[in-house]
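Recap quiz, item 2
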Amino acid sequence: MATAETTNPRPDPAVFADAAPRRRRPSSRPPWMEETPVWLTVLKSVVLAVIVLMMLLPFLHVFAVSFSSYKDVLGGGLILFPRSPTLAAYEAIFNGGIVVRALQVSIGLTLFGTLAQMIFTTTMAWGLSRPGVPGSRALLFVVLGALLIAPGIIPSYLLIKELGLLNNYAALIVPGLISSFNLVIVRQFFMNLPQELIDSARIDGASEWRVFWNIALPLSKAVLAVVALFYAVAIWNSFFNAILYLQDSTKWPIQLVLRQYVLQGSDLANAADTASNQPLPPAKTLQMAIVAVATVPILIVYPFLQKYFTRGVLTGAIKG
Amino acid sequence: MNRAVYLFILPGFLWYVVFHYLPILGNVIAFKDYSIFIGIRESPWVGLQNFRDILTDPAFEVALRNTLIIEGLQLLFAFPAPLALALLLNSLINERVKRGIQSVVYLPHFLSWVIVIAIWQQLFGGDGFLNQILLNRGFEPVNIMNNPDIFKPLVVLQTIWKDAGWGTIIFLAALTKIDAQLYEAAVIDGAGGWRRLINITLPGIRSVIVLLLILRLGSMLTVGFEQYFLQRGVGAEAAEVLDTFVYFRGVVNGDWSFAAAVGLVRAIFGAVMIFAANWLAKRFFDEGIF
């Protein structure tokens, strides 16, 4: 198994085209470390290559099928590159209305929801990050206690029902306005801002709001970006609240439409439409096109997420 | 003192009270015969009747058993998987290769369960990629995605595929905290790679492992919702877990009080488990979270 030894694996160059170093750098192998035996290097490279392929190939396959023509799909087998690529499936689902509407719903929810979440999270985090506020310790326990005790499905549902929010998009945003976890991360960051800067702004007569808006927020862009992305990804992916609170299927966001047409196999003729009289593309390609459009937004924001969490914005804050 | 600070806290505080702590009080319906038409206040008290009903409910027994078996499999396989992967990644010297692999293995964590299961369905489902290959070569198709006998290991595999990479983050952070001089000293004393793993690396991240185990035991009866809900077609006998049980009994069948009672038992059990695990960890490892 894996050991504390270190090695310079030479993985399959096709897979690691991006990751492979362009020029040889001086080895960062610590001087005390023995050379790794060849068999171990090979073993590690193979294991890692298999893991990476297991993560990447399914995506490649999904995208390839979504661009495939009838002939490619009928041929079956391993499709990683469509032989005669076509946009027919995408044209069909984008003409069909249902997927387009679901995408609009999901985009709208994600934008408004993330904005509302950021407002509630940053203001409370700022309040709780200020030193010497009487009662702020007790208030912090209100936040942390929420991590330990969850209200449960049934009472949460009854609350939304009592508030008259069933079948209302607010029911998908309001119950998740603050994540205690994200709030703690932002608060930790605010606490570490240079106090002298804040004090001098106060002496110049800046109000609490001005300090927050003109000093704290601009200095915290990195952590705010990563928290906003986490919120946005969660709303884009949210499924449970939608199934719980939206009975009206015409209001469904993309994740529920995806389930209906891909997992439950509802007739795609309802979701897809070809403007002309051409026959509908094969069901498989339509389904994979829906999977692809639900995945692409995540793939787009992923590099940004990646950039921040490898820098340790999050792990640093968690430690605090 | 700056009063304005309280204005910053107020909206969030009110949100916590209304949307987090108020529903917790709503659990009183577990002690009532709640009817949605007459409301929480007017519904009659029934004492512990709902809790007695739990004990004799055969469907609850199935859901509890499934939950415990899946949690056991998760602890055995899905919990150590990120640790093993983190050790492997940590042993890479080339930073670029390491970061490249990290960015690939974190990715599935950010996809919804609907997408993950759609992808698995496409690969291993009835008319999926694997079965097409088998059919083309003249073999019998295999039933993987809709087979109650293998559902539990399957869902654990899906969990590993989705989250093992992401789980490495916390272990990798802990691994970087280990003092490199310890390794150097061990090498001088003649310790090989294996001994360094057992005697330096694992003890060095022990507190993180214990912390994660404690949290894990606290959520022992919560194995997730979506992955089971989406694959319930395989049959409730194999795929019903406590979360889906509460949802279907309460929200779908309108058996509100009974479902709330199940939810409450689970929450109390979780809290007890966290404290018990913390006590044990303090006693035997001298570690704990509070």
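Residues 1-22 of chain A have pLDDT under 50 and may be disordered.
Chain A touches chain B through 109 residues (CB under 8 Å).
End of item.
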